[in-house]
Amino acid sequence: MTTDTLALQRLLSWTSPSFPIGAFSYSGGLEAAIDEGLVADRDSLGGWCRFHLQAGGARQDAWALIATLSGDQSPDRVNQISLALRQTRETRQDVALLGDAFAKVMVGVWGLELPAGMEGDKAYPVLFALAAQDFGIDTEAALVAFLHAWLANQVSVACRVIPLGQTDGQRIMAAFEPAIAALAAEMTAVSADHSQPPLNAALVADWCSVKHETQYSRLFRS
Predict the structure, then answer these.
(1) CATH code of 38's domain
(2) Over 60: is that where the pLDDT of 1 sits?
(3) Is there a contact between 212 and 172 (Cβ–Cβ < 8 Å)?
(4) Which of 9, 62, 125, 147 has CA 20 to 30 A from 82's CA?
C-alpha cells in the first residue's frame, strides 16, 4: 500500500457521511435560503455554492485549513480567528461543534495529539488541518477533500429540502470540480499570503442564518 493510497483512504473516511461528527444536521443557512425562495433549483443552488467559494464561509474555512498547515501562525491563533469569523450564533455553533466532534474521534480512534491551546472550542477546518498534518497528507489534497465534503453536504441539503433530484445534485458536484481545484491551487500556491483571512461578503447568507434561528419548521440545526 502506497502512502498516497493510505492518505486517500483516510481522507475518504474523514469526509464520509458516516463519520460520526453530525455534519448532516447542518445546512449553513441553506435551509432558510430555500424557505425564502432564494434557492429553488439547480441553477440557484449553483449560485449559492459558487458565492460561498468565492467570497463566503467556504473560502474562509479553506483559509483556516491552509493557514494551519502553513505553520506561519500557531494552530491556537488560527482557531481563534476561525471561530471569530462566524457572524451568527448558528454558524459559530456549527463550526465549533463539528470541530469538537472531529477532535474527539481523531483523538480517540486515530491517536491525534492536539497542540497546546486547543482545550476550548475547536474550529472544524483547523482540526481537519491538524489531522492532515499529523498523518503527512498533502495540503492540496486535504483542502480539495474538505471543500468536496462541504459541497456534498450542501447538495444533500438541497436534495432533501427543495427537493432537488439526485441526478441534478450530481450535476452540481461535477460542475464544481474545476472551481474547487482552482481554489485549492490558488490557496496552496507558494506565493499565497495566509497572514490574514479573506473577507466574507456573503451578507445574504448571514441574513439567512439569522432567520433560520427562528424559522418555524426546520430540519437542520443551522
Answers:
(1) 1.10.4190.10
(2) no
(3) no
(4) 9
